[in-house]
Fold this protein.
Amino acid sequence: MIGESASIVAGCLQHLKGLVRPGVTTAELDEEARKYIEARGGKCAFKGYRGYPANICASVNEEIVHGIPGNRPLKSGDVVSLDVGVKKDGYFGDAALTVPVGEVPAETKRLLEVTQAALVKGLEEARPGNRLGDVGHAIQKLVEDAGFSVVRSLVGHGIGREMHEEPQVPNYGMPGKGQKLQAGMVLAIEPMVNQGGPDTLLLDDDWTVVTRDGSVSAHFEHTVAVTADGPVILSRA
Ligand code: MF3
Ligand code: CO
C-alpha cells in the first residue's frame, strides 16, 4: 500500500541527511539514495520521469527544486534541498527536506525553520471538509508573516498510483476557497520558500528552477493522507 513507498522515502531522506557535510557531492547523495531505495525493493520514481536524468533532486542555495545531482562538492554555508520519490507495489511516495551544510548564517537557519513550520501548518489543514485554500493560506500566512515569500510557479499535488495526480495543491490561497478535501485523498504538500522575492527562472538544463533574485530557497514536503481521524503523514521519519 501507499504507506510503504512513503516510508522508504522517509528513511532515505534521513539517511541522506546524515551524509550531508562539506566536500560531499550531490552525485554521491544520488547514488546513496538509489542503493537505499533499491535495497528496500523500491524504484526511484524520478529517474526517467519526463526524461529526468537522476534518481533524486538536489537543489543548492538559490536552486529551488529539480536541481540535477552533479560533481559540485557541498561547502559550509550552503543549504541543499533533497527531494526523493519512490514507487513500490504500484504506489508512489514523495517527500523533501532542506539541510544546512556545516555552519550557515542565522537568517538561513530561520528560512529552514519557517519553511518546515509552514509545511506543518499546511499538513494540519489536510482534513475532511477543509478546502485546498485552507491549506495554501495556512502556509502562505506563516511564511509571509516571517518576511519570506512563497513560490507560486510550482505547487504540490495529489499522489497515489501516479506521482502527480489531481488536485494541484498551491502553497497560497484563501481560506474556505478551492476544492473540498475528502477522507481517502493523499496529497504531497510542498512549500517552496524564498528569502527574497517569489519569482523563479528555469536554467538552461531545462530542469533546475532558481530564484530570479538569486536569494536562498528552502523546500520541505510530505506525503499525507486525509482521514476522518485527521492528517496522517505517510512520509514521517
Ligand atoms: N517532488 C517533485 C515534484 O513533486 C518531483 C520531482 S520531478 C522529477 O514535482 F522530474 F524530478 F521527477
Ligand atoms: Co512532490
Notes: The chain is about 25% helix and 25% strand. The mean pLDDT is 98.
